[in-house]
Amino acid sequence: MKMTFRWYGEKDPVSLSYIRQIPCISGVVTAVYDTKVGEVWEPEKIERLRALCEQAGLEMEVIESVPVHEAIKLGLPERDRLIENYAQTIRNLGKAGVKCICYNFMPVFDWLRTDLKTKAPDGSTSLSYRHERLMKTDKNDLHLPGWDESYEPSELRSLLSAYESVTHEKLFDNLVYFLRGIMPACVQTGINMAIHPDDPPWDMFGLPRIITGEQSYEKLFAAVPEINNGVTFCTGSLGAGRDNDLVAMARKYAKRIHFAHLRQIKYSGELDFTEAGHMTACGDIDIFGIVRALVLGGFDGYVRPDHGRNIWGEDGKPGYGLYDRALGAMYIAGLFEAVEKEEKI
Ligand code: DNO
To answer: How many whole angstroms separate alpha carbon 322 and alpha carbon 19?
Structure first.
């Protein structure tokens, strides 16, 4: 297991030198942020990023994310060119020592929350999701926390209508088509792809979502059996789906889990939740049980603490401040150490 920490590049207020001071961290999870989705990441840009990490004494073995162009998800004719670009980015990343790429296949939006600063009794704030509030949002006039500047209204409308004919099956076929197209580059470079689950794991605004739990994993591995086709096991995303038995899944898929995002949530309604401190006792996700299952299942991937709260007066990027993620990293590293040592006795 290698413990990593997400770093949003040179504009991130959390510096590499601060990350380095967290005792358990071996490297960062980052990305080239100034290349348009669909274009090849230039070797010079990747190299610059790698050199910055190396100078700070940190590895750059995990990328989150190389985004997938909507035309690939929609299955449009230009997808072949875009898939070839993606494969070239994989080859370029392989040359820089990258071992794992996290990506997602969610149409239009990635994660969705209704509030980014829900206050807890201890004064900390975190992200939360209230289903009814989201459902009341007008699909034709969407304003979503964290997303408002991402799309022009007309662009959003045409994307939403382009997806009207895309069923779950079609989206899944398009995912398989994409994976088959990039697998040769993955096998050649040894890079593992790690698909992030849909967050939260249900359809949104009529958009299909397909990576939601155990059944999706079964379909995904059956369709593309190469071990390079793996997952990012995000406990907060999968955990929002109450039917998912995360401990059983962690054990069963330990070797397909190339990357684990460990995060805590507390349920507050059938589909509602609020993010919480990483400890098992802080919420409804059995972080200890999941770590134990990963170790027993032979997990040998990367881990990162996922969304932290804002604590100690920090006003960090929602989910990605320094302090609470550092606490989370240390807590999770402690669990791994304890379980791994116990298992050797
Ligand atoms: C949110 C993240 C996601 C994740 C992507 C991976 O905090 O976990 O945005 O990076 O879904 O492609």
So the answer is: 8
Indicate the domain borders of the chain. Answer: 2-342
Question: How much is the pLDDT for 149?
Answer: 77
131 is catalytic: no
Catalytically annotated residue among 69, 258, 278, 307: 307
307 annotated active-site: yes
What is the end-to-end Cα distance of the chain in Å, rounded? 19
DSSP-assigned beta bridge partners for residue 302: 2, 259
User: b or e along 44-53 (b: 16 or more beta carbons within 10 Å of the residue's beta carbon)?
Assistant: eebeebbebb
State mean pLDDT over 41-59: 98
Contacts of 57 (CB under 8 A, 6+ apart): 20
Give the nearest ligand 1 atom to 320 CA.
7
Give the fold, CATH level 3, of 2-342. Answer: TIM Barrel (3.20.20)
Each residue's pLDDT tens digit, 55-88: 999 999 999 999 999 999 999 999 999 999 999 9
Q: Check residue 160 and give left, alpha or beta (phi > 0: left; psi -120 to 50: alpha).
A: alpha
pLDDT, one tens digit per residue, over 97-134 is 999 999 999 999 999 999 999 999 999 999 999 999 98
Helix (H/G/I), strand (E/B), else coil: 103: strand
Using a 6 Å cutoff on CB, does residue 111 contact ligand 1?
yes
Q: Is 279 exposed, middle or buried (0-12, 13-18, 19+ CB in 10 A)?
A: middle
Residue 345 has a pLDDT of 61
Contact assessment for residue 159 and residue 108, using Cβ atoms and an 8 Å cutoff: yes
**CB 178, CB 72: distance < 8 Å:** yes
336 vs 260: CA distance, rounded Å: 13
| Cα Dmax for the chain | 61
